[in-house]
Structure formats: structure tokens, C-alpha cells
Write a structure and sequence with these properties.
The chain is mainly alpha-helical. Helix content is 69%, strand content 0%. Helix 7 crosses helix 8.
Length: 207
């Protein structure tokens, strides 16, 4: 720390500034709790306690629990869908077919982790029975965005109906996640085998 002239040690006051905003502390806590335990069972009091903030801080940034869940789902898409599934499959595969199959490779590693938490979009979707709920609709949208990436890869591969192919591939992905949550350590490999059959059906041999 720089020396301050003409001040005794007793007169020097050091102010510690938390670089993380109250909103970010709430978001970090919500992300951790919601992704591991789901959004229905975790109340705002648990988020507040985990974040170490006042209740007013949470409600100053999020008008309701639903708003907090929506923000969580958006961050999940940024970190999981875009920052992990998309980015990692792009890194591991040079072609669209390789990238499609790489998804199950990274899923296999994900399922093997002791803290495997499952898909938050699926979990949140199943937690909300009301089809008109903004949270349910957001979950559907985030799942559709994943399918959009699959559709993009299918189109690049020359599939005649990329949307139908993407929906089939997405079913394999979602099914493997559920099987992985059940404890099937080979769920990703099994889904990949079915994926190869689907590719063959479309004349796309694995490379």
C-alpha cells in the first residue's frame, strides 16, 4: 500500500470494496442452488442465505422468484448451451457430423462427474405444470435454442429436413441425460450408437 504523508498508522483507514455486486452474488447463489436442486424446492430465503445478502438486495434486482428463475435460465444457456455444448463440440469436431457425435462424447464425461446435475431446462420444464407460466415457456425456448444448434449442424451436413433431424437428435440427447441421472454410466455411449444409425439413415457415415 502506498505511504500517505503526514498520517499516523492509527489515522489510516483501509476500505475493503467487494468487487462483486449484490445482483451478481444473488445470481451466483441462485445458479448453484437451482442447477443442483431445481427451482421449485429452493426458496428465495435459501438464495439470500447462500448469497449472504439482505432480502431487499434480491428484490431490488429481481421483482419475483420467477424473474430470478428466468435470469438463471438465461445464464444457464450462456454457460451450458453456448459456452460448453456448442463451444466444446466445435472444438472437438472439424465437420458437422463430428460435432454432432462429439456432443455424446462430452456428455459421457459430464455424466461421469460426481456432481452431475442434469439439464436445468428439462428439470424446470417438468417442475411447472402450468403451460401458460413464463418460466415454463422460457424453458421450452431454451430447449428450442439447443435444437437450433443441432438444426444448424444438420443443414451444414446436407440433411433434407434439418428440423426433423434436429428433433430426433435432441430426443437422443434428452433421453441420455435422463438415463444418466438414473445412474446409467453408458447412457451417452448408447445414445451415440443410436445417433450413428440415424446418420446412416440420412447417408451420413461417421467420419
Amino acid at each position: 500500500m502506498p505511504q500517505i504523508p503526514d498520517k499516523s498508522a492509527a489515522e489510516v483507514v483501509v476500505v475493503s470494496v467487494d468487487p462483486e455486486s449484490g445482483r451478481e452474488r444473488v445470481m451466483r447463489a441462485a445458479y448453484d442452488l437451482f442447477s443442483r436442486q431445481g427451482t421449485r424446492t429452493v426458496g428465495v430465503d435459501a438464495v439470500i442465505s447462500e448469497a449472504g445478502v439482505a432480502k431487499m438486495t434480491l428484490y431490488r434486482n429481481f421483482a419475483s422468484k420467477d424473474d430470478l428463475i428466468l435470469a438463471f435460465l438465461e445464464r444457464r444457456e450462456t454457460l451450458w448451451t453456448t459456452g460448453w455444448v456448442r463451444a466444446e463440440s466445435q472444438r472437438r469436431g472439424d465437420t458437422s457430423v463430428q460435432r454432432l457425435l462429439a456432443i455424446f462424447e462430452i456428455f459421457g464425461e459430464w455424466f461421469a462427474q460426481p456432481d452431475f446435475e442434469g439439464c436445468s431446462f428439462i428439470t424446470t420444464l417438468l417442475e411447472v405444470a402450468n403451460r401458460d407460466s413464463v418460466v415454463r415457456q422460457a424453458s421450452v425456448l431454451h430447449l428450442a435454442n439447443i435444437r437450433g444448434y443441432l438444426c444448424e449442424l444438420a443443414a451444414q451436413a446436407g440433411v433434407a429436413d434439418p428440423d426433423a433431424f434436429a428433433r430426433q437428435w435432441h430426443i437422443l440427447m434428452k433421453g441420455s441425460i435422463i438415463a444418466g441421472a438414473e445412474g446409467d454410466t453408458q447412457a451417452a455411449a448408447r445414445a451415440r450408437e443410436l445417433g450413428v444409425l440415424l446418420l446412416n439413415k440420412h447417408g451420413l457415415a461417421p467420419e
